[in-house]
Amino acid sequence: MKVLVAVKRVVDYNVKIRVKADKTGVDLANVKMSMNPFDEIAVEEGLRLREAGVATEVVAMSVGPQAAQETLRTALAMGADRGILVKTDETVEPLGVAKLMKAVAEEEKPDLIIVGKQAIDDDSNQTGQMLAALLGWSQGTFASEVNLDGGTAKVTREVDGGLQTIELKMPAVVTTDLRLNEPRYASLPNIMKAKKKPIDEKTPEDLGVDISPRLKTLKVEEPAKREAGVRVESVAELVDKLKNEAGVI
Predict the structure, then answer these.
(1) pTM for the model
(2) Where is the Electron transfer flavoprotein alpha/beta-subunit N-terminal domain (predicted)?
């Protein structure tokens, strides 16, 4: 069984984001980039399936500029067998990524596709669902547990009311939640080995996919700074302020 996992190059979660002076986007100059944390979980799950003897190959793919090859190398250092980079310098929206992944899936013919439920840069939470719709595959989103048995997959999902377990017919698309697993660290020997693992480079044109944006960003602003609180002397005063000043009751 072949597993395809998607990884995205994003601003590291420890970095404090700065908005450009002209408010056209986020300033990425000299900013540390890393693999999207949810995608690390996706890679780890694929590797665990291979180690359990369920999967035979784990293929990592990414969409982005040449620098995204570093993110793929991280996935290869974790243990992925090979990588695919769909190279483009354009900003690709979730639908465009889903279309590119569909094209790659049709070439690679994986039995399972695992993606992070969302990327921490745009928080769209759309690619996995769109990909499943385009492929016509079963989907299990927000997975906290995945068990494969022959031609089916049992996925435990985290929903607002608790946990929901569904059974999917393979092939399927699964999106990962935080509690699915704890990603491993890439060891130094594996980092060195990853440099020799193959990365196949393609372009959207090679795959016959139009990634023209459908959305236009008008302005990017930082959230308003939190105002200082006030201390009240009694419950009655608190209720009065909530009612007459805040208007929440």
Answers:
(1) 0.86
(2) 23-211
